[in-house]
Amino acid sequence: MSAIQGWGRYMVAVAAAVLVAGCADGEAKDAATGDVQPPGRVVSVEVIAVEPQSFTDYVHVVGAVEANQDVTVAAEESGPIRQILAEKGSFVRAGQPIARIDDRLLRAQADQAAAEAALATETFERQRRLWEEDRVGTEMAFLRAKYGAETAQAGARALRERLARTVIRAPISGILDSRMVEVGTMVMPGTPVARVVDVSSVKVTGGVPERFAGEVVRGAPAEISIDGMGGGAFAGRIHYVGASVQDASRTFPIEVLVANPRGGLKPGMVANVRVARGRVDEAIVVPQEAVIRTENGYIVYLARQEGEELRAEARPVAPGSTQGNRVVITSGLAPGDRLVVVGQNRLAGGDRLQIVSPGSAR
């Protein structure tokens, strides 16, 4: 062995001895002062206090917006359209004229019928006086005059009614959404003339899965929202629940009536419908991200006080209904528990905790 190698081994031995002595001296000082570091890492987390709160469970379905009243107005008499009295897109009230059919021929017939009715009535009055006062004539002549007058009057009334129907009127109040005729268009009884849509309130139709048949009832509240449309949700109530389940979709139909005073909901829109099917006033509701799925089920982490320290406790829980980012815990948590809501994915049972969220329970 050379002198250099011997000197190197000597220096390594001295360094090891100094290191061991230093460690022993440090442990002795810690033991003497009581400043022994406890095992376990320290993890920064945010916690919330578990408190009972109300929770409404909803069924989510996709529906279609329909007008509450959508009426196609048809002609009741024949003839060419003589005048347009309401423009497309305008608001019309029930009974307001929309268009007028040429009534000149029918008006002449009505005048003729009125004259014939007047003559028949006068003839009957004279025949009645002769028969009742002077006993002139026969009873049969009296009856023939009487029924002749009534027949002529009925014919005159019928023509007056037909004459009135040459004015095509709106059957409901609403928007004149479309018009199928122009001046000069020849129409017959039953020919579509216009479409009037009442959108002051709308109905949203959709299909609810059959498993909720016992929970969705008429009168239940519902919320309507449209993707990409601002203004939040529209409140409504179910006013119709179907009595049968459709074979193909295994759903039953519902209709939700929604007030639409500003016309924001338009027929044909696709709507998201939330139907309330149950409400719990004292539910344990936590953020969904606080619940961790494991091989054996679900757990949450709680902050548990141990002396002057907070330790992480893994607590098995049973989640229930969910709504948005919230989930109901049916068992495993109690009011007052301190639930870890940020940092829980980095935890293990027994870890020391440092709460960093402002305003959280400590």
Can you walk me through this structure?
The chain has 3 domains: 42-54 and 282-355, conserved putative lor/sdh protein from methanococcus maripaludis s2 fold (Beta Barrel), CATH 2.40.420.20; 59-68 and 198-280, Elongation Factor Tu (Ef-tu), domain 3; 73-193, no CATH class. Strand 10 and strand 11 form a beta hairpin. The chain has helices spanning 3-33, 104-134, 139-164; strands at 42-49, 52-74, 79-84, 91-92, 97-101, 167-169, 174-179, 186-187, 192-209, 221-225, 234-241, 251-259, 270-287, 292-294, 297-306, 309-323, 326-331, 338-342, 352-355. Mean pLDDT is 84; it is low at 1-8 and 10-37. 24% of the residues lie in helices and 43% in strands. Strands 2-9-12-11-10-13 form a 6-stranded antiparallel barrel. A 4-stranded antiparallel sheet has the order 6-5-3-8, with no helix packed on it. The chain is α+β, with helices and mostly antiparallel strands. The two termini are 66 Å apart. The longest helix is centred in the N-terminal third of the chain and has 31 residues, at 3-33.
Q: What about the largest sheet? A: 6 strands, antiparallel, barrel
Strand percentage, roughly? Answer: 35-45%
The dominant shape is rod-shaped
The total count of strands amounts to 19
Rg computed from alpha carbons, rounded to a whole number of angstroms: 44 Å
What is the structure about, briefly put?
The protein is built from 3 helices and 19 strands.
